[in-house]
Amino acid sequence: MAAPPTDYRSRSLYTRALDVLPGGVNSPVRAMHAIGRDPLFIERGAGAEIFDADGFGYVDYVCSWGALIAGHAQPDVLAAVAAAAARGTSFGAPTELEVALAEEVAQRMPGVEMLRMTSSGTEAAMTAIRLARAHTGRDRVIKFAGAYHGHSDGMLAQAGSGVATQAIPASPGVPAAIAAETVVVAWNDPEALAQAIAAQAPAAIIAEPYPANMGLVPPADGFLELLRASCDDCGALLILDEVISGFRVARGGASERSGVRGDLVVLGKVLGGGLPAAALGGPRALLEQLAPAGEVYQAGTLSGNPLAVAAGLVTLALLDAAAYAALESTTRTLAVGLRAAAAGRPVSVQWLPGLLTVFFAQDPPADFEGAKRCDLDAYGAWCRGLLARGVYPPPSQFEAWFPSLAHGEAEIERTLEAARGAFEALP
Ligand SMILES: Cc1ncc(COP(=O)(O)O)c(C=O)c1O
After folding, report:
1. Mind listing the pLDDT tens digit for each residue in 213-244?
2. How far apart are CA 326 and CA 324, in angstroms?
3. Which numbered atom of ligand 1 lies nearest the CA of 278?
4. Rounded to an integer, what distance in angstroms lies between the CA atom of residue 340 and that of residue 348?
5. Which residues contact residue 234 at a Cβ distance below 8 angstroms, ignoring those fewer than 6 apart?
């Protein structure tokens, strides 16, 4: 597919944007600083493809950062959203579809009996932590370096995703007293975990079961089981943040795939089918501590928004056994093909169904420090090469690729050809 010889309209839109949006974007990673270029402005998407403001098409591996597991403008999703919109876009009162979505999630996710919906994963993770603190009467929370749980104050310490991409260790503006309540431990490090627990008596351990915000860095054998056992021993709650892995790595997310259950699970992205929806799930005994059933306060004007719930329900209906088999096969073919395209360069590929990262390192990293040692300049140059060849990768080493159900053989072939060209063009 044609490579963009220039990006006149994107550049002029970016110039305009810089006057009215900080950094020209509404979320930092979109700025593409980490791969050494300015952002492309996107006009529309269809299936696996997006088209920029200058009319160039790209096979999209960002897919709204994983929200679009069925691809762009999927007809069933569009029809459901249009039908919901025609009935009214928001009521601030309960609707039947919210109940149906909670029932569907409870049926899919091991350990989830009830759901509290929010508009973003940030809010859902923040609420999970508040609930864990209320339940245990403790304040400290253990999180892992390189994991991202949204941008609430306490969760920005050594966070992955955009925080890592910008190389910000912690954000200014977070009160020291709040930062002190977060204890950061290296991922896949049992000794550091044991020490932190012994020193802190935490309210919760929060973890991405398959961390994907430092690139994809799966747990070492037994590490998730260790998290579960450690929480049981010390009386903390295990919060599994499945905003990325939920409904992606398996029908019931990482909780199903790994067999390890959290006390609370945080969901987002796929749950809203490309519209803003996220949720906190868990057993009745915990969830009913939330207001108005209990005293732990949480609320939201647009929580359980009818359009988002309609999109989420249709998206989940598309995710049957055949869909997961297709997603796994697509991701495997891509992973094997990308590794081969590197033709002996020091590049490794980690993958799970619907998720992959091409690391510019001989061996895949086991933790955030390892991810930071990758050749970030080479990754950036390769990504610029992919964009020039009609493939849109996540513009940061500290992110995962999100192949969707709309990525078929033609898109994979196009991707691998672009990948070979972009590798060959590297110095
Ligand atoms: C694992 C994880 N948790 C939480 C969040 C925050 O979700 P949101 O961007 O909807 O606030 C993200 C976002 O990428 C995420 O990847």
Report:
1. 999 999 999 999 999 999 999 999 999 999 99
2. 5
3. 10
4. 10
5. 197, 201, 202
Pocket-forming residues, ligand 1, beta carbon under 6 Å: 65, 120-122, 125, 148-150, 161, 208, 213, 241, 243-244, 268, 278
Q: Give percent above pLDDT 70 in the chain.
A: 97
Tell me the C-alpha distance between 14 and 31, whole Å: 9
- At residue 49, what is the residue type? E
Give residue 2's pLDDT: 40
Q: What is the pTM of this model?
A: 0.96
Structure tokens at 104: 């569907």
Integer Cα distance of 98 and 91 in angstroms: 12
| Positive/negative CA dihedral, 272, 275, 278, 283 | negative
Nearest-angstrom CA–CA distance, 208 and 121: 12
pLDDT at 160 over 90: no
CA atoms within a 13 Å half-sphere pointing along the CA-CB vector of 170: 15
* Residue 342: Cβ within 10 Å count: 18
* Residue 61 appears among annotated catalytic residues: no
Pocket residue to mutate for ligand 1, from 65, 244, 264, most atoms within 8 A of Cβ = 244
Name the average pLDDT for the chain. Answer: 95
Neighbours of 134 (CB within 10 A): 17
Mean pLDDT across 375-393: 97
Flag whether pLDDT at 119 surpasses 90.
yes
Q: How far apart are CA 148 and CA 243, in angstroms?
A: 10
